[in-house]
Amino acid sequence: MVLQKLRLAHFRNFSNLELSFSPKLNYIIGKNGQGKTNLLESIFCLAISKSFRTANDADLIELNEKSFEIHGELLSDVSVEHSLSIVFLNGKKSVRHDQKRLPRHSALLGIAPMVLFSPEDHKVTGGAPSERRAFLDVLLSQADQSYLYQLQEYHKILRQRNRLLSLIADSEESPDSLDSWDAAIVTPGAALHRARRSFLQNIEDELQQIYAELANNPVKLQPHYHFAEGMHIENTDTYLNALLQLRKKEIARKQTLIGPHRDDIVFQLGQRDVKKHASRGEQKSVLLALKIIEFHYLKNRKQMTPIILIDDLQSELDEGRQVNMISKLTDMGQTFVTSTDHINPRTEDETTFLVENGFVTPHQ
Length: 364
Description:
The protein is of the alpha/beta class. It has two domains: about 1-115 and about 305-364, Rossmann fold (3-Layer(aba) Sandwich); about 130-305, RecF/RecN/SMC, N-terminal domain (Glutathione S-transferase Yfyf (Class Pi), Chain A, domain 2, Up-down Bundle). The chain is about 40% helix and about 25% strand. It has a six-stranded antiparallel sheet with strand order 2-1-4-5-6-7, covered by helices on one side. A six-stranded mixed sheet has the order 8-12-13-3-14-15, sandwiched between helices. It has a three-stranded antiparallel sheet with strand order 9-10-11. It is globular, with a radius of gyration of 22 Å.
């Protein structure tokens, strides 16, 4: 997939903007605070329906304005033209694909697969379990709308079940009233478990190979799925039994203690937990290997080349690694890179844009 044109209206610090892009490499350069990441953010929103920087769509509106619009024209791998658009007005967001309004914002996911490299990505290998769960959820939701549906169903039931646990703890409901909610939550919960574990099992060999090449280190890298509370869940029956075992504890805590919302993914390098014991360089290599896996997985599942977004490349890599990474990723698909300056060497297939105070101009 290639983003050919982008139009913005009142998005962040861009009042009105129209740009055409290279199908290969697009540099977005400028000093800090000028809007480089805002431009990358708009492209991400176009494909994922939400920002990677804020959960509040209203934050994306230009100061003193009441709405924003993002419109993109794309070309598929088989040269079919598509359009995507998002309009946020009066607190409501509408999304369109090829001029047809989509019933749900999340229906955008997977239409234009996208892989983001951001300075915040270090949290995937070194941060809280929620960061690793979010990484898997966004990836698998882009790859398969059925995963997204199960994820939405699960969280809807989870909210209801947690409310019920609070009522039971306050003696306003009977513990037996949990039975029907337990039966309801295990179906989407078990489906999410299966999808996540299957993904990790399927990528294990490729992840090891890519890491060894990136780090020039043959040490074994393995992903492990860790169930919350040490409860190993194989199917809906073992899931129900685990909920029954924890019922008293959950009532006392007023929250659901097991399930996909509490699980973690542990990356083990040799005998070491990457989060706890790997060096910063090792963590970077693991993360880059995961991102390359994400690209290949989406490309294979969607039969479509993902668009690559790289935010603030210079903050994480030295100049030599920057050049190598740009060369590798540009060969994979259309790439957008934000940077304070151009990264040499220049190529024939690149376009460079200079961002200054919300204005974007072609730059030689």
